[in-house]
Every structure is written in structure tokens, then in C-alpha cells.
Input
Amino acid sequence: HAKATGKGRVQLYDVSMRADATRRRQIEEGITQALDEGDIATHYQPQVDMRTGRIVGLEALARWRHPALGWIPPSEFIPIAEASGRIVEIGERILEQACRDTLALPVELPVAVNLSVAQLAREDLAETVADVLLRFGLPASRLKLEVTESVVMKDTRRAIATLKKLKALGVSISLDDFGTGYSALSYLRSFQWDELKIDRSFVRSLDSDRHSLSIVTSILELAARLDIGVTVEGVETEEQVALLTGAGCRVAQGFLFGAPVPASDLGALLARGGRAEGETRSTASVAA
Ligand code: C2E
Ligand code: MG
Ligand code: MG
Ligand code: MG
Output
């Protein structure tokens, strides 16, 4: 179609479109092999109590190193896998890895796993989760499932019904990227969330935009009144820690406390976390 109008810009656009389509197809077609060969790994980011510096939980994040394309961010391959439905298998694999890896730790930390729209749309999601927990032996109380508002928006009534089934298993349910959606407040009415994760866009703008701190403070108050826990995402600087703890935030996730790492690095991360507190590994488990 670029041929008709000709000339640089249009043609470049066309070429990059075709490159995008090729990359997308490579990613789509690579998923089968990735699942077969175990190329989709799970990394873990610590969630930290900012007052003590202790690790109080982990978030499992999908990581994929494609044989030809290299590292592909989840923000790129998750939507593609979502469109083809393969996300259901990927999600189950991540859940299994999260169970296995957390159980191998010397401390009893909870682990958070992200759910996609396609997973939440499945009638058998709660059965699948129950089955994985049973097979691996992870107590339901140590699993948190994170959904974004867009995941709930798809078919709200059904999504909420499924979340209730999951909650009945004893699993905690978190509302991820809180504050970035369209009508977050109505979702607070329709379901008893266990946790809100304040989106990192609020943290990023803390020092430049005075409204951000007011918003974070208000979310904390709202959550406290509704008996919902709060984790703040994307903490990168000590200044942000000072502002956030001043506002009453306790639990945070962010590069300042640690980027996502492979399971094999968790032992060292936990040992270091314990040492910073002058604690041993065994007493670090008290935090969980
Ligand atoms: P999310 O669930 O909100 O995960 C947090 C994202 O923020 C992660 O990006 C993490 O690496 C990044 N992050 C953490 N701390 C900082 C920080 O201090 N600064 C900045 N700039 N970023 C930080 P990641 O791993 O690239 O994942 C992006 C999104 O992809 C996730 O957002 C989640 O929505 C989705 N995702 C990742 N893994 C999975 C999965 O297994 N299943 C599903 N359905 N979605 C996943
Ligand atoms: Mg998340
Ligand atoms: Mg998030
Ligand atoms: Mg996100």
C-alpha cells in the first residue's frame, strides 16, 4: 500500500510495520518452543517493609529470552500470548514455578502472581489454582493473585465471581496498577480486595507534582477504612521512601530495594536482607 503514494516517510512506515508484524509472528510462533524448552522463566522482585527494610513478600514476573530475539519484555509478549490464548498455559507455568521456588526458600514468604484477562475468563481458573497449590503443597494463604482493572473490566460480573471463588480458597487478591484505570473506585465497591498496589506513576511524580503525595495519602486512608492493604510500586529513591513513609506507606516494591532476580539469587537476597537488619535467616521468617 505504500507504493501508491511512494516516497520516504510512507515507505519507512510500511517497512517498520512489516518488521513489527514479523517480530510479532516470531514471538507468537516461539511460544510453543519456549514452553516446551522451559525458556519462559520466572524472576522475583522483593516487597519490602520500608520501616524495617525487611522482605515481606515476592512478586513473580515472567521473563523470556527468545533464541533469536533475545530478552522480550512481558509488556510485549504477554499481550501477544493473550491474543492467541497461550497466556493460559504460560500463566499456569508461572504459577507452578512460583509455588516451587517459594517453597524452596528458607523463609515462609508469600508470593504474588499476575493474572491475565484470558486466565480470569476461564470457568476453571479457581480449580486450576487449587490443583497447582495442592500438587506443589503451597498453602493458599501464601499465594497472592494480582489483577489490573482492565482484567476485571472485560466481563466484570464473571470476573468478580471468579475472584470470589479464588478468595474462598484462601488466596489473597490484589488490585494492580491502582489509580491508572478509568473507574477504580467502583471496583472497590464490588469486591473485597485484600490489597491495592499503587501504580508507580504516582511515585515517579512525587517530587515534581504536589498532588501525587495528596493522592497517595488519600488512597492510604481509603484503603485503611476499607480494610485493604497497600503496596506501593516503583520506589527508586530514598527521597521517595521519605515521602511515602511520611504519608504512612509501609510496604513497597521498587528498584531501590531490588530489581526482579532469578530464583537462584533469592537465597543471597534474603540473606542480605536479614543481615541489614542484624537478623539471621530463621528470624527473618517472622516478617512473613
Ligand atoms: P506489574 O505487575 O505492575 O509488575 C511491576 C513491573 O514494574 C515489573 O515490570 C517490574 O520489573 C517493574 N518495576 C518494579 N520496580 C520498578 C521500579 O522501581 N522502577 C521501574 N521503572 N519499574 C519497576 P515487568 O516485569 O516488565 O512486567 C511488566 C508487566 O507485565 C507487569 O506489571 C504485569 O502486568 C505483566 N506481567 C509480568 N509477568 C507476568 C505474568 O507472569 N503474567 C501476567 N499475566 N502478566 C505479567
Ligand atoms: Mg503485578
Ligand atoms: Mg503494577
Ligand atoms: Mg504494570
